[in-house]
Design a protein that fits this description.
By secondary structure, the chain is α+β, with helices and mostly antiparallel strands. It contains 13 helices and 19 strands. It is globular and about 90 Å long.
């Protein structure tokens, strides 16, 4: 499955008993049976016993060993994994899935909440295009994880028909989340979905397409989503640059179109004025055929998501060093006049340059911080603060993304969306101080979060003072 996974715990009755039984019998299949097999094979080499007896006993000892391993995997696997690509089911559900545990979202054609089955269990029913129907007992899924499941189904299962009963369940959860004045997962995501782009004829540019009277040539598309795209381009047939494209929705009214164009132009001029050695330079901005473009410096290196995929989670000392660089970049943006909120700080937008320095890239999401005006919502769900999903992005939203990014660098996993991140739950050997820094950055409420980048720099500085800084610099 792809990145950005959400793990949903799903246990059926009797699994815990089976797990205890397997653990109790572990010495038998993990030590006694393999040792017995070794001794038996040594003895059998010199034995005159019938061959079929020797084969039968060997087979039995092998069956005990591998049967124990298989049963352990069976009872330990109790999670449903959700990603933007699809669903991965636990092993014990495979018989009802024709032994295909990973299913694409395109294979999920319908979802329903049943009343109660013959045993009194309420079920979440997923009907697949291949003919199977998966029934998940709601009582065995934690409420907050069930809500994440339903939100993921709505966000990624675009071809799935959701029943009125399922939609009503989401509404009930939404109301539950409002009891203490906080929005639940469902309401936040539903509000975001309501703000999403409507159908549009926007199509990204093809390779070899030329702009600015042929001075810029599109080499290839790097990313595309919504009404924007990122390209690798060649300038004047020599230099390599990055081109970011944004399109004002064609169905917007005249006033909205004019306002959007003004904001894009204002944003572009502001970004051109930035001057920090670890921020990708914005060289120019222009409008052509109704599309807005930013021309950015091309940074040679590897983004941190690629780096972690290749090298795995990094040591605490290395990540603390990166914390200082990222916090310094954010401090520059947030103390700029006027302040700038990046709004899309993720491992994908931090490039490890060949000399070991980090560079912040992808400024198409950046926006001048003026009151609560935030423009189009952008960002990756696992790194977006709750208030950002509500359309009220603040400088504190970047601090949330900072904490979420640090969690990824330490664990190799994307954090659970809309949740406080604690890397020590994945890597117990991490220091309490670093864990508390990530927790303080990803607090659900802004008032509980680290207040500003000055405080963030101070916290990181104390961490660096307490760590061993003799580790060699990582380069790519």
């Amino acid at each position: 499955m792809a990145q950005n996974q959400i793990a949903i715990e799903y246990s059926v009755p009797g699994r815990r008993v089976a797990f205890v039984a397997v653990c109790a019998l572990a010495p038998v299949w993990s030590m006694i049976a393999p040792a017995s097999l070794g001794f038996f094979l040594s003895w059998a080499m010199f034995s005159s016993a019938p061959t079929y007896i020797l084969v039968l006993i060997s087979f039995m000892l092998l069956a005990i060993t591998f049967g124990g391993l298989a049963l352990t995997a069976f009872v330990e696997d109790n999670k449903i994994h959700l990603s933007k690509d699809g669903i991965s089911f636990p092993v014990f559900l495979l018989p009802g899935l024709h032994f295909r545990r990973e299913r694409l979202w395109s294979e999920v054609k319908a979802a329903d909440i049943s009343s109660f089955d013959n045993n009194g269990n309420q079920l979440l029913l997923l009907s697949l295009t291949t003919g199977e129907t998966v029934g998940l007992r709601l009582a065995t899924i934690k409420p907050e994880q069930l809500e994440q499941f339903l939100v993921s189904l709505e966000l990624w299962g675009t071809n799935c028909t959701r029943s009125p009963a399922l939609i009503e369940t989401q509404h009930v959860m939404q109301n539950r989340g409002n009891v203490d004045g906080k929005l639940g997962y469902t309401q936040m995501w539903e509000e975001e979905l309501a703000r999403r782009f409507t159908a549009t004829a926007f199509m990204p540019l093809e390779p070899n397409h030329k702009l600015r009277d042929g001075r810029l040539k599109i080499v290839k598309q790097l990313a595309f989503g919504g009404l924007s795209a990122i390209y690798l381009a060649q300038k004047n047939d020599t230099d390599v640059v990055v081109l970011k494209e944004a399109v004002v929705p064609a169905n917007s009214d005249e006033e909205a179109t004019k306002l959007a164009a003004q904001l894009l132009d204002k944003e572009a001029r502001l970004l051109v004025s930035l001057d920090h050695r670890q921020i990708a330079r914005v060289n120019d901005h222009f409008v052509e055929d109704g599309r807005h473009y930013l021309e950015l410096e091309y940074i040679a290196g590897q983004d941190l998501r690629q780096f972690i995929r290749q090298h795995g989670p990094q040591s605490e000392q290395q990540v603390i060093g990166w914390c200082g660089q990222i916090a310094d970049i954010l401090h520059y943006l947030h103390t700029h006049e006027p302040p700038i909120v990046h709004r899309d700080l993720t491992p994908d937008n931090l490039v490890l340059r060949n000399d070991g320095d980090l560079m912040l890239i992808d400024f198409g999401a950046a926006n001048e911080f003026v009151g609560t005006a935030t423009g189009t919502l952008v960002g990756k769900q696992a790194y977006m603060a709750p208030e950002q999903l509500q359309g009220r992005t603040t400088l504190a939203s970047d601090i949330y993304a900072f904490g979420a990014s640090i969690y990824f660098l330490l664990t190799g996993r994307d954090p659970i969306p809309l949740a406080v991140a604690s890397p020590r739950q994945v890597v117990p050997d991490l220091s309490e101080a670093l864990d508390q820094l990530v927790i303080a950055c990803t607090a659900f409420d802004v008032v509980d979060r680290i207040r500003n980048t000055s405080e963030l720099l101070d916290r990181v500085s104390k961490l660096r003072a307490g760590s061993n800084n003799d580790q060699p610099l990582i380069t790519v």
